[in-house]
Write a structure and sequence with these properties.
Layout (H helix, E strand, L loop, with lengths): L2 H11 L5 H17 L21 H10 L17 H18 L4 H17 L3 E4 L6 H18 L5 H17 L13 H4 L5 E3 L2 E5 L5 H12 L3 E6 L1 H13 L7 E4 H12 L4 H22 L7 E4 L1
Parallel strand pairs: 1-6, 3-4, 4-5
Antiparallel strand pairs: 2-3
């Protein structure tokens, strides 16, 4: 396995995907160049152990400048990213493992992470157009339409489902006192041991663009375990969900919400039906969504920017 393949596998297995994690990797790689391998993670902690030594905007931008880049990767340089210390420990363990097998080319490794930075800058985000003349459902529908068009050009991708799952997750984060645990959209429930995409109290929430017989049978298992299944899907998908549910006799024991209405309704409610409140809530929703994408996905093009 090449060093690039090993880095790719490490990044995937340890969720080192977002810009905060990339900042950690760049700074720790530089520590490796300065201090040599193996590294001691305890010596790369600030006093009190709450931060990674040297992690900040100035250090990260200095590394980017060495590679000819001047754009800002992260305003805080990853310092405020949740899990930065854990990412540092995992990454050091990985570097030390490579070192135990032989000499390590840290210049090559740094360049691999810089390629991830370039991918981040090159990716074009989805655009949410805040048009006061349009309904919130139309605004959300436009986002999903953008994902559908991009998905059609990238065969095998699941951009619409990923966008929908993380929008729902972001909305739930706004509603709840404590943020939920989020997963990459392609992480199967069976692999992670989850009853659904989100578990809140006794409710299992399943987010999908196309309900299947397998999903409805999973809902049936939810019911058998005393868990209330709730499906959030597209307008087309809602009809399919009930057809499958009728086949096994649980159509009156599941709730199916159409995604546009589910999202738009809560924007009205959280914003207290005021124009300014709706706008603020949409901005908060997109901020929460982008944070989830940074944490859970490898494609920065999944991010959303607001066009006013």
């Amino acid at each position: 396995m090449s060093i690039g393949d090993e880095l790719k596998e490490f990044a995937r297995n340890n969720a080192m995907r977002g810009k905060g994690a990339i900042c950690v990797a760049l700074v720790v790689t530089r520590h490796g160049k300065t201090l040599g391998l193996p590294l001691d993670p305890e010596k790369l902690l600030t006093e009190g152990g709450g931060q990674v030594m040297g992690l900040g905007k100035a250090a990260v931008q200095g590394i980017l400048k060495d590679h000819g880049l001047t754009r800002v990767l992260a305003e805080e340089g990853g310092r405020t990213s949740r899990g930065s210390v854990g990412n540092m420990r995992n990454y050091i363990a990985f570097l030390n493992y490579l070192n135990s097998k032989g000499s390590v080319d840290l210049d090559q490794i740094e360049e691999w992470w810089m390629d991830r930075v370039r991918e981040f800058f090159a990716a074009k985000p989805f655009v949410l157009r805040l048009d006061a003349a349009k309904s919130l459902r139309a605004v959300i529908r436009d986002l999903l339409s953008q994902a559908e068009k991009r998905q059609a050009q990238a065969k095998g991708s699941t951009l619409v489902g990923t966008l929908l799952q993380h929008l729902v997750g972001a909305k739930l984060n706004l509603l709840l006192d404590s943020p939920l645990k989020h997963h990459g959209a392609n992480v199967a429930d069976e692999v992670s041991g989850r009853e659904g995409d989100f578990i809140i109290e006794d409710v299992a929430i399943h987010v999908t663009t196309a309900p299947t017989d397998a999903l409805i049978r999973k809902c049936h298992r939810n019911i058998e375990r005393g868990i209330k299944p709730l499906i959030i899907t597209t307008s087309k998908g809602s009809g399919a969900a009930y057809v499958f549910a009728e086949q096994i006799g649980i159509e009156e024991r599941i709730d199916v919400f159409e995604a546009e209405q589910f999202l738009a309704g809560n924007v009205y409610e959280i914003g207290k039906f005021a124009q300014a409140g709706r706008r603020t809530t949409v901005e908060q929703l997109i901020t929460a969504y982008n944070a989830i994408v940074d944490e859970c996905e490898t494609d920065p093009g999944l991010r959303i920017e607001i066009s006013r």
